[in-house]
Prior knowledge:
By secondary structure, this protein is mostly helical. The protein has helices spanning 2-21, 28-38, 42-51, 55-61, 69-84, 87-119, 125-179.
Amino acid sequence: MMALSVLSLAVILWKLWQFTRLGVGRNVQISQAITAWDAGDEDNAAQALSKSKNALADVLKTRQVNGPKTRVEAKASAHLARLESGFRILDSIAQIAPLLGLFGTVLGMINAFQALQEAGNSVDPSLLAGGIWVALLTTAAGLAVAMPTSLVLTFFDSRVARERVLAESAIESKFAARSA
Length: 180
């Protein structure tokens, strides 16, 4: 369980660093560029993008935009895929940790009942309680790893979803402005 919690923490810290470095959530300038494109003002759109700290702005600034729209969409998809890397690890940890905890609980209960059987007629309730306590502790540990991991994964996933919507909107506005 400790290995899963360390792995989860490492991936979470890596994703936080990556999201910060790539400017995820810093969308003011891209929104300004969309507004400028919608108004047909390419110069103000380019100026807004040049001030952006979001890596999506680099995708939108590429000069190949005179080419096919699919090329820009492919670059945006690659950017979003990079943001989603590591999500499967977090998802797996969130799913496996409670199962490992439950497995520990089952093993603990087996040990407790084995000790009860071996004691025969002279049953000591503290012997049984100790085994059950350890068994339930493993379930709690599994949940303690899974719940925060799941919450953080949901947070990251929602950030990427917002980036995806922003990218789609920006690409549509940019190419609508060019075709107008």
